[in-house]
Structure formats: C-alpha cells, structure tokens
Amino acid sequence: MRTITTLSFAVLALASLGGFSQESAAPQVVAQTPPMGWNSWNYFAGKVTDKDIRDSADQIVSTGMKDAGYIYVNIDDTWEGERDASGVLHANSKFPDMKALADYVHSKGLKIGIYSSPGPKTCAGFEGSLGHEEQDAQLYARWGIDYLKYDLCSFIPSIMEKQAPNDKAAQMRLMIAAYDKMGKALKATGRPIVYSLCQYGWDAVWEWAPSIGGNLWRTTGDISPHWDRIYAIVSQQSGLESYAGPSHWNDPDMLEVGNGKLSLAENRAHFSMWAMLAAPLLAGNDLPNMKPEIKAILTNRDVIAIDQDALGRQGVRAYSDGEVEVWTRQLSGGASAIAVVNAGSDRYATHPFHLNLAKLGLHGTQSGKDLWTGKPITLADNQPLELASHDVLLVRIDAPK
Ligand code: GAL
Predict the structure, then answer these.
(1) Cα–Cα distance between 316 and 77 in angstroms, integer?
(2) Ligand 1 mean position to 392 CA, how many Å?
(3) In the predicted model, is pLDDT for residue 20 greater than 90?
(4) How far is CA 115 from CA 1, 194, 261, in A?
C-alpha cells in the first residue's frame, strides 16, 4: 500500500512537471538555463535558405560553439509557404524538405527551432498560424522542431485593433489569449518545445508569460548592431530581474556579436551584459565567415558560465556614475560576478571611474578573475578603473567578502 502511494505520488509529481515527451518517459523540462544557439534573422534576415541552416549547423560544431553550449539552430521568418486544401502549411522553395533539415540538424547533436506568428501573416508577410495553431504545433512536432519563436506582428492590426478598436486593455487580453492558445497547442504535442514569446515586452509580458508556458519573452523592440541600441536595451532590463529563473527568462533579443560595425570592445561588452542578464545567448552572425576574435568572444567559457549559472538569478544594476554602470550577479556556490561598463565616450584618464565596493555589499579587497584577460585580478575599494569607451571589466569572484 505504502509503495503504491509513493509511486502514484511520484507519477503525479512528474506529470505536473509538464507531461512526457514522445521519445522517452522523461519529464518535459526545457530551458533550465537560458537557451543557447544561433538564429538566422540578425544576419540573413529574409534571405535565409536550407543551405544556410545546414552550413550554420556545421559551423556550430566545427568552431567549438556546440561544445561551448550552443545547441539550438533557429530558422526565423521567411521559411513559410502555402497551406494545402487541408490547411497543412508547407515550407516555401527555400526549404525543400523541413523534416530532412531537422533530421540533419539533429544528426549533429543539435536542436532546431522555427518561427511563426499568431496573426494571419508574419512580420515579413509570410503565412502565420491564425486559426491553425493546433495544426501548426502538430506539424512542428512531426518535423522534430524543438523551439518556437512566436512573433505578434500582424495579429496587432488584424485582430487586436479590429476587434477592440479603442480598448487597449481588451487588445491586450486578445494578445494574451493568442499566446496561451499556442502554448497549449505546443504542450498538447507532448514534444518538449521551447516557447519563445516575441511581442516586444507589451503589457508586462514577464508577469504572465510563465503561466501560459512561455520559456522566454522579448522585453523590448528589436535589437540592431549599434551600441546605442544595445545599451538602451540593457538599461530597460533593470528591474526585471525578479521575473527570471530556470525555465522562464527575460529575453533582451538575439545577439549582434560579430554583426555590423560593432568594435571589439562593444562586442565584448554586449556579450558580457547578456551573460550578466541571464539572457538567452542566440548568436546571429555569419558563422562560416566568423573572425577568430569574434569566435573567441562567443566561446569564452568563463563568460558563458556566468550566463548559464545554475542558480538562474539575473544580474542587477548596482549603481552608476555618469555613463559608467556597475552590475552584479549572484552565482551558485556563493560566487558573484561584477561588470563595470563604460557606456559612454566622455570619460578620460584625468578623472577615472572609482569602484565603490561597499555599494556592492563587499568589504575590503576582493580576489577574482578578469574573464576577458583570463588573469587573476584584485579589486580594492575606491580603485580607479580606466575603461575605454564602450568597454567592460567583467570579474568573477568565487569567494566574495
Ligand atoms: C520582428 C522580430 C525579429 C524578427 C523579425 C522577422 O518582429 O522582432 O526578431 O523575427 O520580426 O520578420
């Protein structure tokens, strides 16, 4: 009797974790740490093809990115074709065989992601999922998809503004219902599929996304490969830290590391801050032509370890002094990370920034590791720090005092 009770309790507990995958009896837990991988949009945008996805998967393996933790290879917008008479969506001619592509990505030990919209059309004007949510979720599961980014786009004019023209609150309720619908459809497939909400942070998405099955949610509008945009997004994350944790993450958007004209310092600072924020690390660069210094940034294991820390606690902005900001992140085992960012360009050696350890709750000199030089570093109270414009000092302290 006792055994039976214990067993049924165990089964109930497992079931409440979110069901079982079709392939095994393991409970469905995804995104325990922020998802890592690559997404086609930031570099390829509408030009992405089946070959680009395969080449990128190959590169993720050969560059060592896979070993560093990058697992998801995500196809963004513009893969969609037409629906047939039964409403089944087909990929367009750029993606001749989605199942074969998924099998290829899986054969590399990677996972594959896809993109859709709750509206009739995606942002790029391709077929969306409106009215076909269950059918599309089942299709993704049949193809072997592991990750869905669901982008609001045309749902705004087609549904929200049409059905509730002058009522913002009613519009938001329609939006939440649409995300809930796809969340349930994904869950009903029985396949573990990471659910990524992309609705630009509307209606405090961080407050309701986890309850409808969201594993991550964009907190802002789109990123671009420009320092001002990247730092504006960083600033908008302050205050959202309590909403992040295992299986549910704030998403400040995909990485621009290696894109546009970002300087090395900017690439480093961008990557450092995404790690401090426990942000999903979805690279978005041209992998076959990645420069060694960009690969070095994206595969810095120490920085990735900050992002992927098991405690899952997002970093906080501790204080700022003009355009120099100090962020801290609590890590497992009592460790902590400190990032000092010079977000501006008007600070010179004549008046360097002085680090105030007391403001970080630290007492006296601290020993740590500078995660970009890889060398030990000592931080003393009131220590002057000269940081180049848009550069970062990222330090891990294993035993903070
Ligand atoms: C935007 C989204 C981008 C990208 C694009 C595709 O709404 O924020 O990340 O997915 O749509 O059309």
Answers:
(1) 32
(2) 28
(3) no
(4) 48, 12, 27
